[in-house]
Design brief:
It contains three helices and nine strands. By secondary structure, it is an alpha+beta fold. It has a single domain, classed as Lipocalin. It has an eight-stranded antiparallel beta barrel.
Length: 180
């Protein structure tokens, strides 16, 4: 467990208390968590300090556990070619179809401390679960993920338009490089 993963969890939790935009961030109406499982490739993200060493091939793998929680495995390639990996956990907040989750990358023994859990809200989702946009109430973080390493330009542009209407500053997005 790297100390950066603990800081990631604390940073996410801290932003939950950040001043939200004038209108609360809207999520999708429902999320089918089992359908969400599998591999998602990062297409773009708001720059953040905990991913600063990632230069390409960022992806997340989600696996449903017997206790209903989700194991999250994030991977990316560093400049050296080394693969960086962080393993965390996610839990759904609210009903069985709630699009609001919390994620932590801190050790399990710290999971009773609310500050190690960060909000992970599904704010846009393809009907076929082929792409997703994830943020948090303060809009400090945004990730656009896809089941494939690339998204169609028209789909991406339409998504950016919807995210802008939700008060997210899509000008801050940086595209994730995918090595062929």
């Amino acid at each position: 467990m790297h100390i950066k993963h603990l800081f990631f969890a604390l940073a996410l939790a801290w932003t939950a208390g950040a001043a939200p935009a004038a209108e609360p961030l809207a999520t999708v109406p429902a999320l089918d968590v089992p359908r969400y499982m599998g591999t998602w490739y990062e297409i773009a993200k708001f720059p953040n300090w905990f991913q600063r060493k990632c230069v390409s091939n960022t992806r997340a793998d989600y696996a449903l556990q017997a206790d209903g929680k989700v194991q999250v495995t994030n991977r990316c390639k560093r400049e050296s070619g080394e693969v960086d990996e962080a393993i965390g956990a996610a839990r759904q907040i609210g009903s069985a179809t709630s699009p609001k989750l919390q994620v932590r990358f801190a050790p399990a023994w710290l999971s009773l401390i609310p500050a190690v859990w960060g909000d992970y809200w599904v704010v846009e989702l393809d009907d076929n679960y082929q792409w997703v946009a994830v943020s948090e109430p303060g809009r400090a973080y945004l990730w656009i993920l896809s089941r494939t390493p690339r998204m169609e330009a028209a789909t991406y542009a339409a998504l950016l338009e919807r995210l802008t209407r939700k008060g997210l500053d899509v000008q801050k997005l940086e595209t994730t490089r995918q090595d062929d």
